[in-house]
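worker-03 picked up job from queue 'complexes'. Input manifest follows; two sequence lines, order preserved.
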Amino acid sequence: MSPDAHADVVASTETLTARARHVARTVAPEHAPRVDRDARFPRESIDALAVAGVLAAAAPTRLGGHGAGPAELAQVASALARGCGATAMVWAMHQIQLACVTRHAAEGDEVSAVLHACVLQDGVVGSATSEAGIGGALRTSSAALEPGSAARSVRLEKHASTISYGREAAAVLVTARRDVESRPNDQVAVLVRADQMSLEPTSTWDSLGMRGTCSPGFRLVAEVPLGQVVAAPFHEIASETMVPLSHVLWSAVWFGLAQEAFARAARLVKSRHVSSGATAPTALAEAHWRVEVAGAQLESVATAVELHWRSGRPFTTTHVAELNALKIAASETAVAVTQTALRICGLAGYAEQGESSVARLVRDALSAPLMISNDRLLATNAALAMMVRDTGGSPEPASTEVH
Amino acid sequence: MTGHEPHAPSTTEHDAVLDRVTDIVTRLLRLQDVGAPGSSDDLWDLGMDSLGSVAIMAAVEDEFELEFPDALLVRSTFESIDAIARHTLVVLADGGSDL
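worker-03 finished. Artifact:
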């Protein structure tokens, strides 16, 4: 799409979701097959989102974004997933990093300045939270900040088992222990610009699905000014922003995959019905109710996170259990619905090309139960479920402070 | 807080709650060998994770036959023995009904 055409998109549509939908119907599906086949970054779609003014949606307006909240971000993520799952997931993970920095860095500090520069150059911010020997345990680090060679600088070396779109990121948010003496859970987050780090690949990214997210492992070495360490402790960033928004936006992406698979199956069933009078299979109704349930749960939890952020109150055990339940349900729904669509579409669905193909959707969806293993989340939620309170959907109490 | 303030607990009542909470935390965080934590020590720094905090929540509720309101089931309530004891006393005094 030409820049002029993109400018028209920005001018002619009102909402972020409408703009995202346009990209999802034009640029994203045009390039998705090659992105998927070659396991390469969805550059064209990400650039199109930048031109359409959607790339920095979660950043506040003062930093060049739209200040979009979780509910609107979720709608955008679902819309994008209809055209290209990898584009949607890259976009979603970028929004999560934007929110983590802007909600927890002090206004006007060095971290905010680095982020602003990334937004201005239409860059995406990746994350390096996992670590060799630790895996995906978000709240544990082995890597630690050490004094850098310059005054008021820190050095960091991390063997990250995966860095989301590491080679393509304009900056990476890296977790590490506060210093070499710190406990594994005394973590900070550091925003490192691409030109401040060296990345040595330690694995390749040749995955079943979500191939365009290009997230292999790297040995990351960086030295940055002390000001690029986010002011808030990482436990606060994780519990208040990274985990809730990850669950909501990942779920939104998976929901979009399920919606698209259902839509493709429904179109094929309709055409069979019209041409030969074939009865619609009940499997289509199965897929439909699952999509309906998932959509309602997603909207409910996304709205709850948004209200929480506005209130400034911490998430309670009940809310954490609801967030985990969303992630588990949305990921299982995506797998179930895409596979149901595959059974309905038959060989036309199994093919990698064609309007009834759901092959890439099935493969992309299979990543969902693994992104934070559902087994681990179920074990956590089994414990949290003991402490879930029936809040009855009532508004937040006026205060929880006890002195 | 909204509504009335709960009555200030006596020193004896406060100390008794503190002792019982200390026993629970020491047992569940398996700190018997290194000794009980100080009442203001950060339990997260002592290795408590989210599942550990849930275990402590459940044990305190069972020990004092109370139920914390949802608004109190947050990280800060369980960050130290002192914090747990203070919140326990508040819920014991008024059931946490105005929280």
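worker-03 released lock.
Chain A touches chain B through 27 residues (CB under 8 Å).
Confidence is low (pLDDT under 50) at residues 394-403 of chain A.
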